[in-house]
Write a structure and sequence with these properties.
There is one protein chain. Strands 3, 6, 7, 8, 9, 10, 11 and 12 form an eight-stranded mixed β-sheet that branches. The chain has a two-stranded antiparallel sheet with strand order 1-2. The longest helix is centred in the first third of the chain and has 20 residues. The radius of gyration is 19 Å and the shape is globular. It is α/β, with parallel strands linked by helices. The chain has a single domain, classed as Rossmann fold, CATH 3.40.50. The chain is 25% helix and 28% strand. About 5% of the residues have low confidence. Bound molecules: 1-O-pyrophosphono-5-O-phosphono-alpha-D-ribofuranose and uracil (URA). The site of uracil has 9 residues, from helix 6. One of its GO terms (biological process) is pyrimidine-containing compound salvage. Its EC number is 2.4.2.9. Keywords: Allosteric enzyme, Glycosyltransferase, GTP-binding, Nucleotide-binding, Transferase. It comes from Xylaria grammica.
């Protein structure tokens, strides 16, 4: 009788029986090939719950909207999910075979990333993802696009952008934790395309998406890959993601 909203699943490693795994609300499935959702592991679900323990009662994402989650915890657990997103995002960059010789004189046939990258954050909330990218890609270049959603109409407005001059030659990791109507992300991609970045070289890293935002985006940019941690149920009358987590920027920076 627990209050799940959305699809549920027994969560845990395959070697455990169904009865040994707690049930949690998991990401809504989407039909677009270009959208990658992080595996719905106990760790991810617990992080989205923003609770430290993974007991039967804590499992699920009831607490993701908990207004009592303190800012320090919100930042800490968001950062851990952002790290997972960045690590998964890097799997979608081009790679080539590369062999090295080990200190004992043997060869190891491995892989190497190919091509230049840069991050582009949609300010303000997207800036919260920059550190996670820097932690994985040392001295990565970062561009900024300031887009703000009108609080009444939810329409995005572009205020400012500052991007690396050679951005057209780079793979772009576009960063924004919240993907509601998709309006802000679509506007950011239009800016990138106007600077010569082809959509197939943009990777959008996102923490929580709505099915509406994903649908709008994937229809407009069928070659652009999205990596998201979780697709929620939908949007409310103010175009906030539900169940969602409220205003990410406020919770990360000011609340
Ligand atoms: C939030 C969020 C996205 C946008 C998502 O930013 O970070 O950029 O809204 O909504 P959409 O998909 O409907 O466009 P907001 O404009 O509230 O600014 P903030 O980053 O300063 O919080
Ligand atoms: N921006 C947010 O921070 N949260 C939402 O749910 C929608 C837009």
């Amino acid at each position: 009788n627990r209050p799940h909203v959305g699809p549920t699943q027994c969560v845990g490693p395959d070697y455990r029986s169904e009865s040994q795994k707690p049930i949690a609300t998991v990401s809504t499935e989407v039909k677009y090939e270009t959208v990658t959702t992080l595996p719905q592991t106990p760790q991810l679900i617990a992080l989205l719950t923003f609770t430290v323990s993974l007991t039967y009662d804590d499992c699920g994402y009831r607490k993701i909207r908990d207004r009592n989650t303190e800012r320090a915890d919100f930042i800490f657990y968001s950062n851990r999910i952002i790290r997972l997103l960045v690590e998964e995002g890097l799997n979608h960059l081009p790679i080539v075979e590369h062999t090295v010789t080990t200190p004992v004189g043997r060869n190891y046939a491995g892989l190497m990333f190919q091509g230049k990258i840069c991050g582009v954050s949609i300010m303000r909330a997207g800036e919260a993802m920059e550190q996670g990218l820097r932690d994985c890609c040392r001295s990565v270049r970062i561009g900024k696009i300031l887009i703000q959603r009108d609080e009444e109409t939810a329409q995005p407005k572009l205020f400012y952008d500052k991007l690396p001059e050679d951005i057209a030659e780079r793979w772009v990791l576009l960063l924004d934790p919240m993907f509601a109507t998709g309006g802000s992300a679509i506007m950011a991609v239009e800016v990138l395309k106007s600077r010569g970045v082809p959509e197939e070289r943009i990777l959008f890293l996102n923490l929580i998406a709505s099915p509406e935002g994903i649908g709008n985006f994937a229809t407009k940019f069928p070659k652009l890959r999205v990596v998201t941690a979780f697709v929620d149920q939908g949007l409310d009358s103010k175009n906030y993601i539900v169940p969602g987590l409220g205003d990410f920027g406020d919770r990360f920076y000011t609340m």
